[in-house]
Amino acid sequence: MAELDELLASIAATTVDYREADGEAPTPERIERWIGQFDGAVRLPILREMDHVLKQTYFSRTNTRKFLAGLFKTEELVGEDPCAFWRSVKFLDIQGGGASQKEMLALFSVLLENKCGFKIEDCGANPDTFIYLDDAIFSGGRVSSDLAGWIETHAPKKATIHVIVIATHQSSYFNRNRVGQAIKASGKSIDVHWWRSVELEDRKAHTTTSDVLRPVAIPDDEDVKAYVAAMRFPPHLRTAGHVGGSGIFSSDAGRQLLETEFLKAGVRIRQMCPHLNQYQRPLGNMILDTLGFGSLIVTFRNCPNNAPLALWAGDPWVPLFPRTTNSDTSMRRFMAMLAQEDF
Fold it and tell me: Where is 164: in which H helix or E strand?
């Protein structure tokens, strides 16, 4: 019991600011309810591995602030006068779904006001450089769709766009081609630059050395076998023995544990939760007919649906990280919290 209590407290401490404005931060009690949904023999091992993983993949508000503070003065981007650069650019607020962009812009606006004396809305009076700021890119579909639409309808004839995120996944390069295609179709002269702090491997050709959940075998579980049998194509399995290049997992054994147990739980969740759509695969949202995206990134503001269902699905499953889909309500609470503190 001592180890259980220590793990519950450690995970709660790592994720203490998760959706804090909405009162959804995981407590030891919630974490214990969540882990209690798994078989007794794997509960402690799952908690051990999740304790390790979340220390690598959870982006707290503090870490996000550090990222933005570093971004503010990145000389390769801003040159020798950061305030002059940021005053000259236009920040895009064009995200087609969710509130992640608005919340990242709100955080950066506080930093600009503290450092330079102006806010984001004061920037870019006559811009030729534009900033698309967000927390993470998964498949790349959202950012590519946003930019393709903006390029076609609102972009000037000549411009530079900087896409800036904390983390990105390498398979998103496929969707990024849509941006290039949109530029070509528009006849405009637009340069796009992609900036990130962390880049995670998730491409099919690099499955074995990837940084996401990719099982090495199909579990001996009737429900999972039935799910796999109904897929259009057999799943692309990982070769055992690798933890990925980013050191997210403590060991291959720990990684395999999460892959197996989250896959089993995800199939079970799909059976019990009536509101999941066809793309919400057991290991995370993905358009392609696979076992799921398998990302383990979680930010202080939300859990992406590209993460395994076992982490965020609800009703009647008890989620570790309840997702918010009401971006307006969440945004109001976030802004109220932000107004009470300094950057």
Answer: strand 158-169
